């Protein structure tokens, strides 16, 4: 199995490697503190299933839920009654409450079986309260469950069936309570960078102050930036809209390599560099160095001697096959050269770990 190489800003983005990072919108680099989603969940029942519901003998909580629901509706079951239902399923209902959501607004919900129901297709979710982490109810869900992933093709000769125990209701919940927001309290907001980086934080502060005036933005640390905003809510919204649309050139990311040991995929950014080294692993030999070239001027000329070093990478097997790469001793080329001679993902992982341990790999190595 050959490993796959995904060298960011390398093979596919080669022309961009020599350029600096492009400017990005501030909304893509940071978020506004307090402007976030809130997770909701609730326990409910799906009815109307075509014999694909919970086996009540093995899911007693389904029977208990049905009994409690009937009692709320004023229906009392005779003592000793054993319910044998196949068209009911106990489910968990989850949803994300958007920032600034107001009562009456509808949101999508996901319905997931928590028993042994075979399918939720064709079922109807009964009215289910949705609570937040504080235990308060913020929404009410109900509606017909839509389950995808089942179909036939080729006259029914080929059937594809995916997960049928999870469904979705578009606009299936109504917001009943708004989450209090303190956006703009004390006439300030906090920008939170997606990735902690002191250089990027400094550039964001500089860009904001250049556009709106000195003292408007202040960096609290490598991730949080405090920004003064207008006191009027209308002006504040306009200000934040302009702020999010600003272009800021982020600092170059730290060198990092992600290796997936299961698939053999290697992902690296352009900051990854290698120092001269030599590795012997099994029947593989990897040599990374530099080819020194000296350019002498003609006698009597006013020129000067120029010494240049061209990076070299050579990878070979004991069988004698050698691949020599000049003009860029990057890890991307090392991986490509190893791939060309049939090295395995395990060989690559071992060599990367050895390079890191020896201090020749100038990058953070993460294996997933």
From TrEMBL:
<feature type="signal peptide">
    <location>
        <begin position="1"/>
        <end position="23"/>
    </location>
</feature>
<keyword id="KW-0732">Signal</keyword>
<comment type="function">
    <text>Assembles around the rod to form the L-ring and probably protects the motor/basal body from shearing forces during rotation.</text>
</comment>
<keyword id="KW-0969">Cilium</keyword>
<comment type="subunit">
    <text>The basal body constitutes a major portion of the flagellar organelle and consists of four rings (L,P,S, and M) mounted on a central rod.</text>
</comment>
<dbReference type="InterPro" id="IPR001782">
    <property type="entry name" value="Flag_FlgI"/>
</dbReference>
<keyword id="KW-0966">Cell projection</keyword>
<dbReference type="GO" id="GO:0071973">
    <property type="term" value="P:bacterial-type flagellum-dependent cell motility"/>
</dbReference>
<keyword id="KW-0282">Flagellum</keyword>
<dbReference type="Pfam" id="PF02119">
    <property type="entry name" value="FlgI"/>
</dbReference>
<keyword id="KW-0975">Bacterial flagellum</keyword>
<dbReference type="GO" id="GO:0009428">
    <property type="term" value="C:bacterial-type flagellum basal body, distal rod, P ring"/>
</dbReference>
<dbReference type="GO" id="GO:0030288">
    <property type="term" value="C:outer membrane-bounded periplasmic space"/>
</dbReference>
<comment type="similarity">
    <text>Belongs to the FlgI family.</text>
</comment>
<dbReference type="GO" id="GO:0005198">
    <property type="term" value="F:structural molecule activity"/>
</dbReference>
<protein>
    <recommendedName>
        <fullName>Flagellar P-ring protein</fullName>
    </recommendedName>
</protein>
């Amino acid at each position: 199995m050959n490993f796959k190489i995904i060298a960011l800003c390398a093979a596919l983005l080669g022309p961009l490697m020599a350029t600096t990072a492009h400017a990005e919108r501030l909304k893509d680099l940071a978020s506004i503190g307090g402007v976030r989603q809130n997770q909701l969940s609730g326990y409910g029942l799906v009815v109307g299933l075509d014999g694909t519901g919970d086996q009540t003998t093995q899911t007693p909580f389904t029977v208990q839920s049905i009994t409690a629901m009937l009692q709320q509706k004023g229906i009392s079951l005779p003592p000793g009654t054993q319910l044998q239902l196949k068209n009911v399923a106990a489910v968990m209902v989850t949803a994300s409450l958007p920032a600034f959501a107001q009562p009456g607004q509808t949101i999508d919900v996901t319905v997931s079986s928590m028993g042994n129901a075979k399918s939720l297709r064709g079922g109807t979710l009964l009215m289910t309260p949705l609570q937040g982490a504080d235990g308060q109810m913020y929404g009410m869900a109900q509606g017909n469950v839509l389950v995808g992933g089942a179909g036939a093709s080729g006259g029914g000769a080929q059937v594809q069936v995916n997960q049928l125990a999870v469904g979705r209701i578009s606009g299936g919940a109504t917001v009943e309570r708004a989450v209090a927001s303190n956006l703009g309290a004390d006439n300030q907001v906090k920008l939170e960078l997606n990735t902690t980086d002191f250089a990027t934080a400094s550039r964001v502060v500089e860009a904001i102050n250049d556009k709106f005036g000195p003292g408007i933005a202040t960096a609290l640390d490598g991730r949080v930036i405090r920004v003064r905003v207008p006191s009027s809510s209308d002006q504040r919204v306009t200000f934040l809209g302009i702020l999010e649309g600003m272009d800021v050139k982020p600092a170059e990311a730290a060198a990092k390599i992600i290796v997936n040991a299961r698939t053999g995929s290697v992902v690296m950014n352009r900051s990854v560099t290698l120092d001269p080294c030599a590795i012997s692993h099994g029947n593989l030999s990897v040599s990374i160095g530099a080819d020194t070239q000296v350019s002498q001027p003609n006698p009597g000329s006013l020129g000067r001697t120029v010494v240049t070093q061209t990076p070299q990478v050579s990878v070979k097997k004991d069988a004698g096959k050698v691949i020599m790469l000049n003009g860029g001793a990057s890890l991307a080329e090392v991986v490509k050269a190893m791939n060309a001679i049939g090295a395995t993902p395990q060989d690559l992982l071992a060599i990367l770990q050895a390079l890191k341990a020896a201090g020749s790999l100038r990058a953070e190595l993460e294996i997933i």
